[in-house]
Amino acid sequence: MKYRDSSNSIDTPQKILKVNHAGEFGAINIYKSQLFVSKIFMRNLVPMLEDFLADEQSHMDIFWEEIKYRNGLKCKSFWLCGLGGYFMGFISALLGEKGIMACTWAVESVVVNHLENQLIYLAEKQDIQAYEAVSSILEDEKNHRDTGFNNNGAGNFLYQPLRCIISGFTEIIIRFGMR
Ligand SMILES: [Fe+2]
Ligand SMILES: [Fe+2]
């Protein structure tokens, strides 16, 4: 998605920050629910999921600091992201390790794509602080995405419907938040 100037009272950089903040809350909840299931059934995945969860928590703080600095507000879809994230994480974890990897790959691919487009927009606008906030998390999100990919999260065709639902939901909620 190409990012454009906002047509309402909240400018696009603020929207990017609030949508990313809500997205991080969604990601936190994905990894929390996957951790919950993995601690019972897939202990080998726990260290990876704990690392990812810690990353997402620090990302959410980065965006919240910048939102506060601009006197901005939480995204209206903040709680929806959290609930949707928890649900997606939980269902994918019930499908086992492959489900978790497919979910990670699907979500993080959409995220990385949006972050890269946001960086193009923010560079054009010369909004250096928002640019730095977004660019500071990009490597972590690529690492999450690539971990999913390297563990066959993009492969196995049986998981294609799961990937489609997850990436579709992620895309819709980002666009909804950017309106
Ligand atoms: Fe993140
Ligand atoms: Fe992530």
Return Rg in Å: 16 Å
Question: Hey, roughly how much beta strand do the residues contain?
Answer: under 5%
Count of discrete structural domains = 1
Biggest sheet overview: none
Helix content: over 70%
**SSE pattern:** HHHHHH
Q: Which overall shape is indicated by the principal axes computed on the Cα atoms?
A: globular
**Mean pLDDT metric:** 97
Terminal-residue CA separation:
13 Å
Q: Return the structural class.
A: mainly alpha
Can you tag this structure with a few keywords?
179 residues, mainly alpha, Ferritin, 6 helices, globular, binds fe (ii) ion
Kindly describe this structure:
The chain is an all-alpha fold and 179 residues long. The protein has one domain (12-178): Ferritin, CATH 1.20.1260. The chain is built from six helices and no strands. It has helices spanning 12-41, 46-69, 78-94, 97-125, 128-150, 160-178. The structure holds fe (ii) ion (FE2) (2 copies).
Summarize the structure.
The chain is an all-alpha fold and 179 residues long. It has helices at residues 12-41, 46-69, 78-94, 97-125, 128-150, 160-178. It has one domain (12-178): Up-down Bundle (Ferritin).
Topology (SSEs and partners):
Layout: H1 12-41, H2 46-69, H3 78-94, H4 97-125, H5 128-150, H6 160-178
Helix pairs in contact: 1-2, 1-3, 1-4, 2-5, 3-4, 3-6, 4-5, 4-6
The structure holds fe (ii) ion (2 copies).
